[in-house]
Design brief:
By secondary structure, the chain is an alpha/beta fold. It is 30% helix and 22% strand.
Length: 430
């Protein structure tokens, strides 16, 4: 297995390239198609959490319905034919009792398959039948109680073999799950970013047959980069007439010392990413944030070589990390809404201003605004008949009532405006 340092160096190089390509790019948030955003659109990977009741309570505060974890083959079959599912029986029961929906990642390898007792993560013709026995055990045990995701980032550091061997494994696994449990949710791909060659290979090889969606981790150096990853994947879907949704099973930004997202920008990145992906709910089924918890509490000694320690929304002591309120506000205000770009009127508002408008059937409205680039724009918001027009602070979650027809100071950091009732909103240059 590649070392953490090697992986970190590769990620730094990749993100540096992304940043150089995207830092001067125009916004990728101009999505004009209306869509319904499911109530269960949001989720969080609860890595590093023992899923205590207080953790479930926090996940509820984040409006996170989905959780995701790897049911490692070597963990449930440590020796050939000896199966141990007690941990996962308990895990799934606890999550179900808390109202969570679960994605189980199927992977990776078992050491007992090899003479040197080391994982190869290159399952070929000899090893595949053993892997399928593991798949059968898991699916027979858990049925439709969970969704199944085949592997994790096979185009990155979690698969050491050829693409062709992985395509064969993915196709065989999806087919076997479908035979065992026709109504199970089966996800394939699980790629780190959108790897065009690998993704097209998945489709050409038939590996996407028997699936319910393509899972992807559209990491970027910025929210713009993340949106562009989704646009790129959608184009590949069109090439192959694939009409199933995108499942964003990981997305996020590290706030570590060697990352491109510093802790001050983290709330901004969260609001832009969550709201931007939600506007694409006609093709994106859901979003799971990576991840729930940092490795370190504030003030503790930090490992500065691995930025994977800093993707969380909370600290290990369960205090909220900067960005937590931004996630809560966005997820709670736009889950279960309809994205309505045509119902917002913009008069003399420059394209540098992003404005995303969401409505609920109960008459609740949410408008998320930010300006791309430096400076600010003063815009008047007019909503005839609006009740409780409020602006939220994404850094601390506080709400302030606004006067009728307020002038909004729109800058790079997003602002969230909500109100009840009222006519269609209008933004005009002040």
């Amino acid at each position: 297995m590649k070392s953490i340092i090697t992986k970190t160096c590769l990620l730094i190089a990749l993100f540096a390239l992304c940043f150089s390509l995207l830092s001067c790019a125009s916004t990728a948030f101009n999505y004009s198609k209306s869509s319904m955003i499911p109530d269960d659109f949001f989720g969080i990977s609860p890595d590093r959490s023992p899923l205590l009741q207080e953790d479930f309570n926090l996940l509820d505060n984040f409006n996170a319905t989905w959780i995701r974890s790897t049911i490692r083959w070597t963990g449930v079959e440590p020796e050939e034919g000896r199966w141990e599912f007690e941990y996962w029986d308990n895990y799934i029961s606890k999550a179900e009792a808390a109202g969570k929906k679960i994605i189980l990642i199927l992977g990776f390898d078992s050491r007992w398959l090899y003479e040197d007792n080391k994982e190869q993560r290159n399952l070929g013709e000899r090893e595949l039948p053993y892997f399928l026995k593991y798949v059968e055990q898991v699916v027979t045990r858990y049925g439709t109680r969970v969704a199944y995701e085949i592997w994790n980032e096979p185009n990155w550091v979690f698969w050491y073999g050829s693409d062709e061997n992985f395509f064969a494994l993915s196709a065989a696994t999806a087919k076997r799950i479908r035979e065992l449990e026709p109504n199970a949710i089966v996800l394939a791909g699980s790629t780190s970013r959108v790897d065009k060659k690998f993704t097209r290979g998945m489709f050409r090889s038939g590996a996407m047959e028997n699936t319910d969606g393509f899972s992807v981790h559209p990491y970027g150096a910025s929210p713009n980069g993340t949106m562009r990853q989704i646009n790129k994947l959608q184009k590949i879907f069109n090439e192959f007439n694939y009409d199933k949704p995108i499942w964003v099973t990981e997305v996020g930004y590290s706030t570590g010392p060697i990352s491109f997202c510093n802790i001050r920008e983290y709330p901004d990145y969260i609001v832009k990413t969550l709201s931007g992906l939600a506007t694409r709910a006609d093709g994106v089924r859901n979003l799971l944030w990576y991840e729930f918890m940092d490795t370190y509490n504030p003030g503790e000694i930090k490992n500065r070589l691995d930025f994977e320690n800093y993707f969380g929304l909370i600290y290990p002591n369960r205090t909220l990390k900067p960005g937590a309120h931004a996630f809560m506000l966005t997820a709670n205000h736009i889950a279960g809404t309809q994205y309505n770009p045509d119902n917002l009127t913009r008069e003399k508002v420059k394209k540098s201003v992003t404005s995303l408008y969401f409505t609920k059937e109960d008459g609740t409205n949410t408008l998320i605004l930010w300006k791309n680039g430096v400076g600010r724009r003063n815009l008047r918001l007019t909503v005839p008949g609006a009740i409780s027009l409020s602006q939220y602070n994404i850094h601390n979650g506080e709400a302030n009532l606004l006067p009728e027809n307020p002038v909004l100071k729109v800058k790079k950091s997003p602002i969230i405006i909500t109100w009840a009732e009222g006519s269609a909103p209008r933004l005009t240059k002040k």
